[in-house]
Structures are given as C-alpha cells and as structure tokens.
Specification:
mainly alpha, repeat, DNA repair, ATP binding, ATP-binding
C-alpha cells in the first residue's frame, strides 16, 4: 500500500486516516480480501448508510431527549409543565402553546 505525502490541511476533527486518505484504501482492501464477504467498500464506511452504526447513525454518540427531565407530568401548561427557560408560563413560546387551542391547559 502506498500513501502519498502532503501538507496537513485538515480541521481539528481530522484523523490520520482522513488526512492521509488511508481509510479509503483500507476499506477497499477489506472489501476485496475480507472473510467472510460482508459487502463492498462502502460497507466499511461510517459515512455510508450501508456501513454506519445503526444506533448512532455514524456519529459515534447518541443524542436523546429525556422527556421526564423536560416535562413535569403533574402540571398543566398554565402551571409550567414544560421545564425549559423559553417555555415558562410568562414566556412567549409558552404562551404560544397555551393560546394555540391544541392543548387542554
């Protein structure tokens, strides 16, 4: 395997594999000689739907909202059920939800 030398022009999130473009060569190599065969080179890429982790979708972390931290299930909208600064009882966003007519306040 041959890797060309070049100046580093990546950003702070770049890795040796992305800067040197060795990831593409390794993916190609594994797709050709890997046993058992699991797919073409995109099957080894976290940027491809075929190769990315199904749980984190290739990000390496999971973003999730804990509704129990955000909502007080025992309060109504008028009482401040949404525990988030811009949705408080006296805030515009909270007022917009209360006045929408879509919720039982």
């Amino acid at each position: 395997m041959t890797i060309n030398q070049k100046r580093f022009n990546g950003n702070s999130r770049s890795t040796v594999g992305t800067v040197s473009d060795i990831y593409a060569s390794v993916r190609l190599l594994w797709s050709r000689i890997g046993e058992p065969f699991v797919g073409y080179s995109d099957a080894y890429s976290f940027n491809s739907p075929k190769g990315m982790c199904k749980t984190c979708e290739g990000l390496g972390y999971i973003e999730d909202i804990n509704l129990d931290e955000l909502l007080d299930w025992d309060k109504s909208l008028n009482e401040g059920a949404i525990d988030f600064p811009s949705f408080g009882p006296d805030k515009e966003r909270g007022k917009a939800y209360r006045d929408s007519g879509l919720f039982d306040n």
